[in-house]
Amino acid sequence: MKVGIDMGLEPGGKPAMLDLEELLATRLLVQGNSGSGKSHLLRRLIEQSAEWVQQAIIDPEGDFVTLADHYGHIVVEAADYSEADVQRVAARVREHRASVVLNLEGLDVEAQMRSAAAFLGGLFDAHRDHWYPVLVVVDEAQLFAPSAAGEVSDEARKTSLGAMTNLMCRGRKRGLAGVIATQRLAKLAKNVAAEASNFLMGRTFLDIDMARAADLLGMEKRTAEMFRDLERGHFVALGPAVSRRPLPIRIGEVQTSTRSTSPKLMPPPATSGDDLRDLIFAPAPAEPRRAAPPPPPPPPGVDDLLQALSRRPALEPATPAPAAPDMPEADRKALIDAVLREIISDPDASYRSIAVLYQDFLVRCRIHRLPGEPLDLPAFRRRLTIARAGVGNDTESSVEWSRATEMAGGLSEDIQGLFLLIARAALDQAPCPSDAEVARVCGSRSTGRAKRLLAYMESQGLLVCRNDLRGNRIIALPELGWTTAPGDAAAQSDMAL
Which segments of 428-489 does DSSP mark as H helices, in order? Predict the structure, then answer.
């Protein structure tokens, strides 16, 4: 499914759209000197995608904490918690699919690196059931993945660099999509930058950075000087999520703003030299004694923060959406079934994790304006298993099929779908599923794994396999008394369910 994020305008005035699903699979690198508009670009991306995907922002300067007021992000003040607490918070973030901002402001560089590494480690080490898609935005990435040793300890640098490498190199399978921004490509570790497939290059002045930016965009070196002429907020984009050719874009407006502002011209006061001297060197007046100010409130404990994450505050949309009309339960169920059919019609859907498919399901439900609460994760697993088995509404409502689903409920999760696939074929007197179709339902392309699963189920007494005189396979389900028609075990999988 394609969800377009409006990033601004192309030269002809056409909206510059970014494919969010493609971005989640291919990652993004943003480069530009200080003042080129990197933070503005990241803010635009975060605001436009907040409704569609969970977000985790590593913020070294505290620029993105204002997102909490408009979009419900939870701000984690890293200075108030230990590294172990930050790692626990990151694990709870993935479990409850909460969008957060890790504010590293107030920490020295080494402490920032350690805290960011702990946070990324918590996201990366989450349980497989919690591998929901997350947009992980890292501002000033050269601080956390430096290309060379600096003033920090080797231990802190290696820990932070390892966490950033995991994010960009191995995070995709865990649902982590890295979006990193840096002032200079030369300061960013090459093995981290090389994993990005999408690029947004802003204003750059140093020759080495211009040459490297041109090389990443596939441009000739003699055209690299164009990066000196880019205005603030103007970038050159390239990548499967944006454009297959280098495309200049101007980043659009944002709803929130940073707590800091760019320097503005301000003329000095019109005061003569003698008056200024008197003001500067005037003796300090005697100050009356004042009562000591009350101590600042203590920071929230980590348990309070974890409870706030579990509450998952609802996002405040930029524009209120009209309420969906009430829908009869039968129509609602039919719409859910249609969404599930859309998902499994994708040839690659069988090989994606259940967390990624569930996120896709929730997005599609919003697009189809499904009223009420969508299915929770366990209910989605059951419905997806039935849909993968190719069960129609008539079959699902039959008394015979209820026996099959009741028996499948007592099986382990990895073979429930396979059992229902065979049961559906036996009930309909359809040919026995091939090894390729069995492997697809189990989320694999290996026919060897399909054969091993069938052998395991036969050893447990769940089914009996035999071949007819022509060598076609027949599978019987003794507990149900059903038998499939003969089928070619070596046939290719039929994706049309």
Answer: 435-441, 447-459
